Amino acid sequence: MITQLIKKELLMVWRRPRELVILLFMPFVLITILGAALGSIIDGEAPDLNIKLAVIQKDDIAHGEEKIIKKMESLPLSPEEKTGAIEGIKSLNPIRILLEDVFASEEFKESIQVTEMESMPSDKEALKYSGVLEIPAGFTEQFYLHAFFNEEEVPKLNLKLNESNTLEGGVLKDIFTSFQEDISLWSVLPSMGIDPEKLQNSFISKVGNTETVTKTKPINAVSYYAIGMCVMFMFYVAGNSASMALEEKESQIYGRILLANVPVPIFFIGIFVSTIIITFVQMNILFGLSALIHGVSWPNVIDYFVVTFILSVMVGGFAVFISAINYRSNSRSATQIFSSFFIPIIAFVGGSFIPVSQIGGFFEIISQYSPGGAGISAYYKIMQGFPLSDVSGQLLSVAITTVLLLLLAFLIQPRRGEAI
Amino acid sequence: MLEVVELSKHYKNKKAVKGVNLYLEKGETVGLLGPNGAGKSTTISLISSLVNPTSGDVRLKNESILRNPEKIRNILGVVPQDIALYMDLTAKENLEFFGRIHRIKKKELQRRVDEVLDIIGLQDRKKDLVKTFSGGMKRRLNIGVALLHEPELIIMDEPTVGIDPQSRNYILETVKRLNVEKNITVLYTSHYMEEVEYLCDRIYIMDHGEVIAAGTKEEIKSILSAEQSIAIKVEILKGEYLQLLQALPNVKNISVQDPAITLIVPKKVNILKDLFKLAEETKTNIISVHIETPTLEDVFLHLTGRQLRD
């Protein structure tokens, strides 16, 4: 008997194009739109940069090094101390680091195009560049004199930025501010007895890499919105099931079913199970399409199925609960409130639109254990590669919600002899 | 076969059914008449065990069904006033669904579905979605679902509402055939007096939750045996003329279906003289006057003060 009730529900949904559009087409379109539109915010991606840097090299690096090495050799030091100091000089050349290790590195060579120039370009010519860098004459010598002999000031690079090119100019300014700070640091290291070679790579890593806090797989925007939209739209299955159930009462089909000696709880179990199946299928279609078209993937498919099933059962609980209210109140107010008010709130609190971790605090805690937030959080962690045990809190919260909904539905459902 | 004893249903602010008594013998067709809100549908829900009564009893073959509603449900087919069908399923799928929940076995079900499709004349449309059907076809399928489990008793709640005359005739013939050929007992409610006159052996008339008259057609008509019905057709109906007619001392009932006025008056009273005099006074042109023996419609009007389709 339950099989017939379920089969009928599945056929009805399949034959209603409007419902299919709401349950399948809309979330998929939203995944695509939100993933693309908010991708850079969520992913923390750097926009494509095309920085043109003109470099006017007035400094003679080799000459500066040679002068310092000669000065070092004239000092009353042991041969070992002299060799160590000379190696330090050769390995710590700030201009070579800047031009060869930073601008020519993998991270920057595609976004920074360096053009060497003999002299300062005209104002008109300078507009073709994001910035013009002048390395003043005697820079290398001045740097070594300060670092090894505590003579002279820390030398400074001259950077002229193109103000009409704010994004690229801003990036250049950041790089050179950071570089200038670093050469100030390097210049005092020899006097403190620290090997400057150990620290010079920190500059490259600092400006060249995005560090991640955890060691788990980072989730991109499309994947995030695939989860967010799927969790949001799974609740519409509950609203839809409850709405279809009420149609059965309004058209007296429910009475007809009772007259066939079908107990009231069996009728509601039919709604419950069919909603679980529809939600489970909906999730698999949406995530399947997201995998095919957007490359959304799950490290452990079994874990994904477990989470999806548990969430589908919760949606089934919502369907039965709303149906019970509708049947008892003889109106579709509960469905309307649920679909137009409750689902958007569940979605917002759960983080379907923006990652709740960006808001943080108490809101983040509430979100994690709200019906939608628990689902999003569980999916998110599973997608990152966490084991199922790490989402047990969220799954327990979902299970408790389901049990409560079913209990309330059982208490609210119409009794025998209250069919109209 | 079925006996309803002092059946009442009270809601918070309304007494929907008040002490109704009625009975149905095996194989007879009984009409339940009443204007909107008379309590017919509630009475049907009480008889079919969908709603528990506040007081009273429904007895099937001398056994109360209140504690064991399954007994009546197994032998009962209900045709609700609404189209209680799934619009997104085909006619066959609807029949199969309701057949299966009635626990008809699969092989038997196919035979029954075919038989019912033949009875309701939808064999050639069985694979079409119900939402593509005309109103008449939907009504026929609505009846078909109630016949699937071969019930001994069918309750039909206005099964011909809103359909074309052809479909209506088809349904009436089907009900008559089921009653005559299969000896199915029928409780039939309708807004159409002629349907009840055509189908029913006995009639109950309900108003304000109570049975106000019961008996065979002849017995009911005899309520007005001392009365006559006068139908006046006028060129233009004037309110002034109507008011004067209503004020006549011997007029028991008056109903208006513009441009006709029907009066119920005692047979022995000669009212014609007054009718023409008042027409002259109000400058109303009378086209025709018919004096008739009262019909069931007239009796209904007399008893309820309303027309059946009000």
UniProtKB/TrEMBL annotation, chain A:
* GO cellular component terms attached to this protein's record: membrane
Keyword Membrane (UniProt): yes
Keywords for the protein's UniProt record, in alphabetical order: Membrane, Transmembrane, Transmembrane helix
List each copy of the ABC-2 type transporter transmembrane domain by range.
20-411
Where are its TM segments located? 20-42, 224-246, 258-281, 301-325, 337-354, 391-412
Q: Which GO MF terms are attached to this record? A: ABC-type transporter activity
User: Which cell locations does it reside in?
Assistant: Membrane
So which domain of life are we looking at?
Bacteria
**Name of the molecule in the record:** ABC transporter permease
Which species is the source of this protein? Cytobacillus praedii
From TrEMBL, chain B:
**PROSITE patterns from the UniProt entry:** ABC_TRANSPORTER_1 (PS00211), ABC_TRANSPORTER_2 (PS50893)
Single GO molecular-function term? ATP binding
Domain ABC transporter intervals? 2-233
Query: Where does the source fall among the domains of life?
Result: Bacteria
What InterPro entries does the database record attribute to this sequence? AAA+_ATPase (IPR003593), ABC_transporter-like_ATP-bd (IPR003439), ABC_transporter-like_CS (IPR017871), DrrA1/2-like_C (IPR025302), P-loop_NTPase (IPR027417)
SUPFAM superfamilies in alphabetical order: P-loop containing nucleoside triphosphate hydrolases
Does the record bear Nucleotide-binding in its keywords? yes
| Entry keywords, A to Z | ATP-binding, Nucleotide-binding, Transport
One Pfam match, given by its short name, reads ABC_tran
PANTHER family membership: LINEARMYCIN RESISTANCE ATP-BINDING PROTEIN LNRL
In its UniProt entry, what is this protein called?
ABC transporter ATP-binding protein
